[in-house]
Here is the input.
Amino acid sequence: MSRLISYWRRIFLLSFCCLLLTSCDYFDFSPYQVNLKEEQRNLNKKNLDRIAALKLQPEDTLRFALISDNQRFYDELEDVVKAINTYSDQVNPISFAFNCGDLTDFGLQEEYVWQLNRTQKLKMPYLPVIGNHDCVANGVKIYEAMYGPMDFSFVVAGNKFIFLNTNALEFDYPVPDMNYLREAISGNSEYQNTFVISHVPPFDTDFDKNLTPEYAQIIHSNKVTYSIHGHQHSFRYGQPFNDGQNYLVVDTIQNRSFIVVTVIGKQVSFERIKF
Amino acid sequence: MKIIYLIWTWFTLLVSINGTAWAQDTQLIAVKRKWYIPNQATLQFAGNIGFVSAGLGYSLRQDKINLDFLYGFTPGFEAQTSIHTLTGKFTYTAWNKQYTSGYNWEILQFGSSISYSFGPQFYTALPKHYPDGYYFWTTSFRLVPFMSTALGKTTSGKLAETGIKRVKAYLEVGTHDLAVLSIVTNKALNPWDIVSFAVGSKFMF
Here is the structure.
């Protein structure tokens, strides 16, 4: 009998051992696991609170940095983080930074964590939009756990920012959610500028072409300042629909450049910076 | 330090499960086993093939080669997306030391698993709606290479009566193909970023 007890005690100790190991970083259960620590969750909300705490006013000069498609370029990611911090300290202060998507290559949690550990070194709040690579396998669940909803919007100093999931190939329902875009953009006359940030540009073959005309029409009729994108891996700026609307495609960081947008009232300009 | 302590505890607990010798003579009846009947059961914690995985396998060539087939379960945690994985695992023992007391230490083993994860979010061939070569890798299959070390002991007493002849505890360090691909092109990542430990036990019958 006593042997039996000690046997169960051992089993219990083994399970306890297992539980302790669960909390340890060096044990991966699956490449596709979604098991984030508390400090790695819900980061968009946390960063939006940080932006709100800046208490930026419409008359203030607003600057934000744009990077895109860091994917499997961790060396370049470390460099761009340093370059943005240096720019903010020594040239012009940057209030926050956006990533135009493809934070990861394979949509794996460990990649999400690798890029997070590096982008957390940015001195300003950082908000990423979801890219198509970030959706692969359990990627969407990881994005939602780490950052929050894929479509979201916020107002800073009288400027409206709308983040939109445009990765149409990754979903079995129509993407982008045009109802969300219409609703978020409505009443934009109250704002001095509106920016829409999404990964796949509406003129890309990976965009849902049934939705391209409607997207362009919404951008045009609401006088969006810039429709900002990534995905194409090379910088582009122009009016692809010849309707007077400006579309900006941000370089992959592999090309070692980032963009700084400066907003002074209704005057908006950008600068492409090599690092 | 915590990890090393925990791993050591795991080893001692597993290897000592059958306790001290139970003085009793058991008559051995040699039965020739059919080749396809498995001769070992495995239980593993972590290692990229499941939170826990369990299965049956074969010890071949005087235990120099192990072939195991495991089912692994990973709970959903906060995203409620649990993962079911089937794994074929090949282990080769490169360096083994026998001790007279019935213990042996397989100092260095290495091998690789091929895992298959189930679910609509995983594909083997790229779904048709993507342009050709849009993603170059498959998400359902993963190659999981590893190195391991194992401590084995011939059973005695009550445990031996159940038909389990030997027990083994092993510690594994491994990674997976996509993580290897990430590290080879980046100085910013180091081996600690991609390795993952696993502990397990084998019961040979």
Notes: Chain B touches chain A through 56 residues (CB under 8 Å). The longest strand of chain B covers residues 83-98.
